[in-house]
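Notebook, bench 3.
Goal today: get a predicted structure for Alkylhydroperoxidase AhpD family core domain-containing protein from Streptomyces griseoaurantiacus so we can plan the truncation constructs. The sequence was checked against the plasmid map this morning, with no discrepancies at the termini. Length recorded as 157 residues. Pasting the sequence as submitted so the record is complete.
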Amino acid sequence: MESRLDFFASPLGGKVLKHINSAGRAAAESGLPAATQELVKIRASQINGCGFCTDMHTKDAAAAGETSVRLNLVAVWREATVFTEAERAALELAEQGTRLADASGGVTEEVWANAAKHYEEEQLVALVSLIAVINAYNRINVINQQPAGGYRPGQFG
């Protein structure tokens, strides 16, 4: 499978990705736990059917020490006992924030209140930003049919 465009080599693509990367870096450096960040990126990517991002973030998480059990259970986190209450709140927020078109009103007050119980305000800003950024990446890669499987941990720095 080949991508429709060489988005990474395009001058305009490079400009767009530079800005998305800057937003992602700001969220990543926020103090939100790194494991939570990867879990959220994986779950949104699974929902959006983004093989490239799912490949990238599962490999990055594994390289950072995440267990295969937890990585294998992200898609079914509600039934899994391996996630903390804070991680579960972040995963629920990620799901509702990713499935905006499926919900009549976006993220529910209950889901927001649960996330706010576990994360301080700057972490919530980071979490919302992270969800927005990974959804942007997912859309670029899905539309472009970016192939998955060849990512190496840390490949993009």
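The chain has a mean pLDDT of 95. The helical segments are 11-28, 34-48, 51-63, 68-73, 85-98, 109-118, 121-144.
Flagging this for group meeting.
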